[in-house]
């Protein structure tokens, strides 16, 4: 039996790339295990890690990849297992970030690509009125981003049919439709080891990135080896017309007065009422949330064009030392 496992979501995207991934995996001797329901990819990855698999890859979108990483993490084998992604979903943001350009290329990367120690984001949340229960809740990782506010709520309302038919454009259209009715969210945001104040007031969005930057930062990929989270709080501006050409780019340009940006290793968020948070496109609801960076937590196969230092950082990257 092979110790190279591919966890495949056959429902990702339009299904054609998933079919292609299955064919190539079987030709190259991978053990293909299909997920057919929520959290099944997590359990399949957990089983693969428990068996001592040397490679566990996710064939699907960012949600499938998140489940696979969570599964390996629950077995405590992120450091020993090589993780990989075969992009078969709608957006495939994380695959872009690690320079995996397609299904065929993904298998070349798994077999011959560099291994890097990449950071993970980790969150705990509770919907209780008091934040005291945060320390007792289980932590959940995210690879790309944790988002709250307009983008998260619009994404939650984007149907699977629209994503299959329109791809990434479905998220854009859903966001524009929500701008006219979104009322903003009251947040108190603190960061760092002393919980220094970052933001208090009404926000349109809270964006916390591990693998990605946000509009206005000049690049899509964040530094995933600096042990820090990229945090952007966007102040609510009800009068802005998002349907105007270039409005979103101007709204999120670097240095804009309505943006608060931080790079931190720890973040605490209190909302006035429970809100939806998107973790790599999967949703949780909470009134209080704690986010932390996990430096170098996972061993990941990356493409030849992957840049370990795409933005300025005070901390060096970490080549794989395994």
UniProtKB/TrEMBL annotation:
Keyword Signal: no
GO molecular function terms listed in the Swiss-Prot or TrEMBL record: ATP binding; kinase activity
Chain residue ranges for the region called Disordered: 1-20
UniProt KW keywords: ATP-binding, Kinase, Nucleotide-binding, Transferase
Matching InterPro entries: ATP-NAD_kinase_N, Diacylglycerol/lipid_kinase, Diacylglycerol_kinase_cat_dom, Lipid_Phosphate_FormReg, NAD/diacylglycerol_kinase_sf, YegS/DAGK_C
Annotated coiled-coil segments of the chain: none
Classification via PROSITE patterns: DAGK
Official protein name in the record: DAGKc domain-containing protein
Source species of the chain: Halogeometricum pallidum JCM 14848
Organismal lineage: Archaea, Methanobacteriati, Methanobacteriota, Stenosarchaea group, Halobacteria
